[in-house]
Write a structure and sequence with these properties.
This protein is of the alpha+beta class. It has five helices and three strands. A three-stranded antiparallel β-sheet has the order 1-3-2, covered by helices on one side.
Length: 153
């Protein structure tokens, strides 16, 4: 099924369903590394995506980035910052890339970076993907709060 009834945007119900299903898997993943690996693979379900990677504060290196100079610089700066402080991803400013921050008003958990090959295809699913990003953030926040409660119990 290529489009839903009355929808002329070209959005495929199959892709939207896969994004929604991915949201439901997040809470079942055992740790941040598995979450990052899952997100990296899920990025390739999105039309228009050339490459993607996940940088989580809890991990020593980005998952899926290869050897990107920008990531090495960021990792060095990130180590100097306090736990929970906000920072900016350099890919937010680069053409052909989209950076989706994983943050609440109080904590920064990381960023999902997408290298876009076909902007017209990607933009059709961007709102659904932002919902997925929000689900990732909530999952990471819940885990963080749970760990704090466990340590103080």
């Amino acid at each position: 099924m290529t489009e839903t009834r009355g929808d002329k945007s070209g959005v495929e119900a199959r892709v939207l369903s896969q994004i929604l299903a991915a949201q439901n898997v997040l809470s079942a993943l055992p740790d941040e590394n598995r979450i990052a690996e899952f997100i990296k693979e899920a990025l390739y379900l999105l039309p228009g995506v050339k490459a993607g990677w996940v940088c989580l504060r809890a991990l020593a290196a980005p998952v899926g980035s290869g050897e990107r100079k920008e990531c090495r610089v960021c990792l060095g700066q990130r180590r100097l910052q306090e736990e929970g402080s906000l920072w900016k991803c350099d890919f937010e400013e680069l053409d052909g890339f989209e950076a989706f921050l994983l943050q609440t008003s109080m904590h920064y958990y990381g960023v999902i970076v997408v290298e876009v090959a076909d902007a017209d295809a990607f933009v059709r699913y961007q709102h659904a993907f932002i919902n997925f990003v929000n689900s990732v953030t909530i999952t990471l926040e819940n885990r963080s709060q749970h760990e704090k409660l466990r340590r103080h119990a």
